[in-house]
Each structure stands twice: as C-alpha cells, then as structure tokens.
Specification:
Largest sheet of chain B: none
Number of domains of chain A: 1
CATH architecture of chain A: Orthogonal Bundle
Distance between the termini of chain B: 31 Å
Radius of gyration of chain B: 21 Å
Strand content of chain B: under 5%
Oligomer: heterodimer
Helix content of chain B: over 70%
Helix content of chain A: over 70%
Distance between the termini of chain A: 68 Å
Radius of gyration of chain A: 20 Å
Number of helices of chain B: 13
Structural class of chain A: mainly alpha
CATH class of chain A: Mainly Alpha
Shape of chain B: globular
Order of helices and strands of chain A: HHHHEHEHHHHHHH
Strand order of the largest sheet of chain A: 1-2
Number of helices of chain A: 12
Structural class of chain B: mainly alpha
Strand content of chain A: under 5%
Shape of chain A: globular
Number of strands of chain B: 0
Chain lengths: 312, 337
Amino acid sequence: MIAELVSGIVYSSIILLTPLLLAGIAELLVEKSGLLNLSIEATMLMGAFTAFMVAYYTQDLLLATITAGVAGIIMCLLFALLTVFLSLDQMVIGLAMNILTIGMTSYLYRASFGWYVSPVPPHIKETIRPIEIPVLSDIPLIGEIVFHQIPHTYLAFLLVPLVWWFLFKTRLGLKTRAIGEDPQVADYLGINVNLIRFYILIFEGFIVGVAGSTLSIAYYNMFLDNMTQGRGYIAIALVILARWNPLLLLPASFLFSFIDAAQLRIQASGVIPFPYQFSLMLPYLLTIIVLIIAGRKVKGPAALAKPFKKVR
Amino acid sequence: MAIGIAFLVGSAILLLAGVNPLVAYYWLFYGAFSATSLVETFVRATPLLLIGLGLAISFTARIWNIGAEGQFYIGATITAVLGLYTQSLPQPFTFFLLLAAAGVSGAAWALPPAILRAHYGINEIITTLMLNYIAIYTVSYLLHNPFRDPVSSFPETSTLPEQIWIPILVPGTRFHMGILLAFFTVPVIYFILRRTAFSMKLEILGSGRKTAEYAGINVTRLIIQSMLISGFLAGVAGGIEVLGIQHKMRLEISPSISPYGYTAIAVALLGYLNPVLIAATSIFLGGIINGSMTMHRMANVPVGMAGIIQAIMIIFIMLGYYLEEKFATKLLERLKQ
C-alpha cells in the first residue's frame, strides 16, 4: 500500500520534472557561458503554443515537437541578437520578451480559433504517449516508474550526463566555462566569445522549445494562455539549487517535483484538508525556499548577466 | 521612433490575422484618446503611473522588482478588508489611514525579496515573480473564503460604504481625486530622483555593487529602501484602485490582458526611468489597454495586441540606447582626431 503510494508519487514527480529538467539543463549551460536568459519562460511558452498549433492542424506529434524546438530557436536567436551581439541588458530584454510572448501567443491563439470562448476549447485527440524501454521496463517497480515515460523525459535524463561531459571533458566546454568566468581574458586568448554563446543559445532554444511542447501536447491536450506559469523562472532557481553542476540538477529538480507531487496527492486524497489555492502556490513558495537554502552566498559564473563588449 | 516601429510590426501581425490595420488602429485610438474615452484612459493610467514611479526608483539602482503585481494585489485587498471596519471614522482621516495601510502592506510584501537580495544576493527577479503567484493565490483564497461577500455570486468582498469612496471630481465619469493625487506624486518622485543624495546613491549602486561599496554607501540598506519604496507605491496604487474605482476587492482587479504590475515595468522602462516621461507613458499605455479592448469589440482584434505593442516598443527603445551609445562613441572618436 505504502509502496504503491510512493511509486505513484514518484511517477507523477517524474512527469512534473520533465519540462523543468529540460529547461534547467539548457539554462545551466547558457549560464555557464555567462548569460542569464530570463526569456526561457517565453521560449517555453512559444514551444507549447507552436507544438499545439502544429499538432492541431497536422496531427503529427513528432513534427509538432520538432517545430516547437525550431520556434524555441527563433526565440533564442532574438535573445542572442539583442544581448550577445548588441550587448543590451539581459534582464530587461528577457522581461520584454516574456511580455511579448504572452501577448503574442494569446493573440495568435485567438486569431486562429476565434475570440469567443467556446465551451470546449480546441484540443488535440492524440497526445504523446509514454514509451516503454524494452528489458529495462521489466524491472519490478523502478521499471514501471522510470522506463515508462514520454520520450522527452528520456531526452532530459540523457542530457544531464551529456552536458556534464561537454562542460568538463571537452575543449569547447572548457572555453565555455572560461567565457562565463572572464570573457575579457578569454577574448585575449583568442576565444570567440560571442560565437560560442550564440551556438549555446541555439541549443537552448531547441531544448526549451521541446520542454514547452511537453505541456501542450503530452501532459495536456490543449493550449492555455500563459500556460508555462513561471516554469522558466523555476528552472532558473533549480539551476542555482544545483550550484551550476549538471549532475546535481537531476536530484535538485527531482526533490522539487517530488514535494510538489506529494502535496498534490495529499490535496487530492483529502486526508489533510487544505484549500486548493495553497496547493497551487506551493511550487512558487518552494522555489523561494530553494533559493533561501541554496542561493545564499553561492558564486555562480563570475561574468553571469554582465554584458560583454569586445574591446578593439 | 520605437512607437512607430511597434505599430508597423503590429500592422504586419494584424494583416496576418486578416484585419485591416487602419480600421483596427482607428478603433484603438478612438478607444484610447477620444473625448469620451479620455477619462477612462486616466483611470487606467493611475495605477500604472504610481507603480511605474516606484519601479523607477528601484530600477535606477538596477534592482529589478518584478513583484509589483503581487504588491498591488496585497495593498488592494488590505484596503478593501480594512475599509469595511473603518466607516465610523472621520474623513479624510480614513482615506489616508487606508492608503497608508495599503502602502505598508505592499512594502511588507516586497520586504522578503529585498532582504534576500540585500543580505544574501539572491536574484530578486525570481523571488518577486514567485511572490506574485503566491499573492494572487492568497488573495484568491481570502476572496473565496473568509472575506467573501455572502450575497455575491463572485469571489469578491462586500462593497465598501459610500462615505469612504474617493470623491468623484467630474460628475458622470469615474474621474476621482485619487487620479490627481497620483499625478501630484510625479513632482515628488522627480525631486527625489533628481535633487537628492538618495538618487545619487541609487545611481552609483546601479553602476555596480562594488563601486557603491567603495563609495562608502550602505548597500544592503539602500537595496531594501529602494524595494520598500516601490512596494509601498504599488500597494498605494492598489488602495486607490479599490477606493476610487472598484469599491471592493475582486480577483480581476488587474486587467488580464495587460496586468498593471507587469505593464508598469514597461511604463518605467519606456519612460527612461524619468518621472515626467513615466507620466506620459502611463497615459499612453493606459490608452493602449482601453483601446485594444475597443479594437477587440469593434474590429474583432484579439486583445493580446496590447502586450505585443508594449514589448516591441521596449525592445526598440533598448536598441535606441545601443545606437545612441554607438553614435556617441563614434562622435567622441571623431572629435579626438
């Protein structure tokens, strides 16, 4: 009974974790290169929107996921243009892009489906289904929980060691860390700071766009205004909790999602009655607690969020 | 310039949706700045102005308080709840008491992120944003349960007694005294941001924490002060909205197409953190909010347009900063030669 309850909670926490981990691991890499991209909230929302639209009109979920990634790349290209190549303030541009995207997606959604609120909002019939990994999914308990998930989840789990390997075992990763600490010195050493940041942002765009698609075509079958609900910001907080270490990001985001899943279960079971509003606000409260515990006096990449201008 | 580009991009988006941009913009401006709608534009501009002025102070120090939406909600709720118990007190004492309570509660909501930022260097953008969600869910709980008007079918408080409403100045409209009060705040903030040592400190902090520490500024105190001022004004904005317009607390007190707390960020940035320009921008964006609703009703344009126009303007104004700087340095180089 207890084992069943726990495995149920673990299962739903992996579902909650997927978009956060995907966005978090991409953002971690970007922050390592010295950029703070607040617009991943916008990128994720754009991904969710694009995925839904493509899935709605073509019924092709793979195509929808990939276009969501491409839409994410376009968002990050805009961010790259403004903050990397024009050295504008990353915070302000990030915020402006978030406002832009909330307006843009809700506008385009209504422009496509009409502005009256119909009783049944447009939805897709098929959503992305969990895939069982052969052999591994036969492991009792763990197999059912971990290896019976949507492909996005496996992508997220796969990216964790990959990003770690890239950052700490490759030359390009070393350069990335160097420009995140001191772009000026890296520049003197002949590293093309802007180019590396540009490539990393393209990667982030794709991954975060795909993370957004999990919301609209896997876990829900529709698009809702501002449906990311601050998940991009939560992912940034989780990067801080993980102290910019890819290998710590997995347990950090798992812990976060586990607490959220557990409280949702308690709320739904009605054993301990508390108002649903408190249940809804818990992830945000948890994010602040995470920052209080983990964010004190930790040093991120030294050049984080500082505009870099090439001195000639 | 930025406004022009924002409208050009806007027309492209309108064309994509199959709407004639000229017709749409006609209704946008009709709804915003025609003689009959001008008062409503000022009604919208008032919270934007007050919040924007507060944000100008914290943004000058490059302290990014994104939590004005939550601070506004908390200030408004406190006013609506306290207002039910203060009807026997004399005016204008009640008015100032309630606004002070609104401001203090708004500031209190800004205090935790301020402390976290000042003492521990925790990113205030994330904490203030998270507190917005927490504030709105808390208010939602309060309006559904303890403070719900038992007669109403909506989650809202009971209507406040008429004697504590802010008096209307132009009969037949919603133009109340609070609107004037908000615009009288402009010179006060202008003075603070232009003529005091405090503003100097804010600017030094804005150029870097290390610089400010070398200059002997108490950085932690300054960060907390600037956040508290912006929280206070956001709370007051909530109080004025309740006492002057809504006369009760509703969950939809902030327009969902362009929430006051977030739009005010655009107001402050588009106004170059200058109080006079902020006043102008708040009227302009207040008009855009109303206009986009008119545009929605009359030309069938979805309401998200208001957000799109704002954000594009911010981005192009930022680009403007960049180009100005570029030209300035080029000019300097020329002069040197």
